[in-house]
């Protein structure tokens, strides 16, 4: 009986709340309000604000501890005129949709953002277009949010005077989906961000990284495209990251990587495509990472392994037409290469089981030498190098003896 | 001189080898374009082949032509013609006919493929210019060898050795010295080493123009800051030019004193 009473009471409260929630219209003339800030100040928790189309020259629009559902329509533009933040929010259960925000203030000391969320829970940011952003969406100490279908672009010219499109700091359980971010410093940046999902985003032409993890654990990113960034994705000092079905391409230049791994443990890298990168994967201090069924196509170096890498496995990957398939420092350290397809494997398969009878050595003598003496790279594509590589292949002397793929596949892995 | 040049040129133009050489390049570049579908990639592969074959064929052809036309040369020398004109004419005849086979053989398929609309045209032009330079350099060197060696076998031996040294052994020496001296800053040394050998210079010039140069890392940046400037570019072509001029001067000097 008491449960019944409790239930009916809560339903009553719920209904009351709904009955009280209003829709407030905002437009230049003839609506409830002309200014977004004034409308927000007079709104109650649970109200819906509808901003009609038009240009609103406002900045630092603050929402403090109110649950509001704000939406605009095509042509709703908030022009910050380089004066500060767009929205500053500290609230629970809030949504912001269909708005264009322009011209955020650039600063070398403060992180001005188009949308700044602080200690906000259960938020939704959707269909927001941000142009001329310094920071796009900056989320701090927040939880349970969704950031989707936003388009964020900046005009910065160097790493110092540009910010990140989507920046999470100390935040958890946030979904970042279907966003398009370009011309920023980092496309998406997670620092102390845990349990986040980053799916189907397009991140391109960013100055530093397309996606950047710092001290962020238990995250996953799937089906994203990283194109023409300084480096595609940097995963640093993080654990338990799932990387699936992403495309890393055209990260080309003297300091470019498709995927930069630095001090990361226990990750799965599966079904990704690495195409036209100077270095496909740069692994430094990585442990227990499984590379499974990835395509490395047309990279300068497909995989570059630096020191302190232990127990990583490379299985069923396709290495196709890379200048160097593997560059390796130090000893093998219980890393394994097995059942990969190497486009320049020249062995044979007598028993026709699809596995080559001769082990494949992914490290050529030349890439070994270049590792020791970087200046030797000037002899790239010289006839002498080809001869040396060939003779080393026939009878290995210098390259690490046990660094082999003992089951090289005869046919490309199809996944 | 021009009469002799013209004669040598027509003589070679009628010979089977020029056509074989021309057809070889024609076939090579058509097949490459057919298989690659990408001009820039085709240029890289072509570069690999050109840098090995052009010097080789230049040397062999130069030596062969000199020895083959030795009797005719003696006949010409009996006429009131300046010696330098005879040899220079013959040399230019060989070098020009080889260059034309090369340029036409590589150029025609690329033209048909739509090179003129492509952005790779500049890279391709560099490849052609560099290959022509290599032809001139190596046939001049071959002529020098042939002039100094009456013995055909010896002459051929030295010619092959010259090619082997420039194309292969030199790089080996450079690599070993780089590895041995790895404690020292090596950018200057490697840059100089690449400038001195015409084959390496040609390779570096082409590679730096292609995407692949990003692989060169820090050393590449040093190279780019040299070759990227008009001064460095001018300097490298000057060096190629010096490589042509020096052997020609030696042809003059040796042929003036040589007893036939």
From TrEMBL, chain A:
It comes from Paucihalobacter ruber. The keyword Repeat applies. Pathway: Protein modification; protein ubiquitination. Residues 1-21 form the signal peptide. Keywords: Repeat, Signal, Ubl conjugation pathway. This is Nitrous oxide reductase family maturation protein NosD. Residues 155-347 form the Periplasmic copper-binding protein NosD beta helix domain. InterPro entries: NosD_copper_fam, NosD_dom, Para_beta_helix_rpt-2, PbH1, Pectin_lyas_fold, Pectin_lyase_fold/virulence, SCF-Subunits/Alg-Epimerases. It comes from the Bacteria.
UniProtKB/TrEMBL annotation, chain B:
The keyword DNA repair does not apply. It comes from the Bacteria. Keywords: Membrane, Transmembrane, Transmembrane helix. The chain crosses the membrane at residues 20-36, 42-67, 88-115, 121-143, 155-181, 233-253. The keyword Cell membrane does not apply. This is ABC transporter permease. It comes from Paucihalobacter ruber.
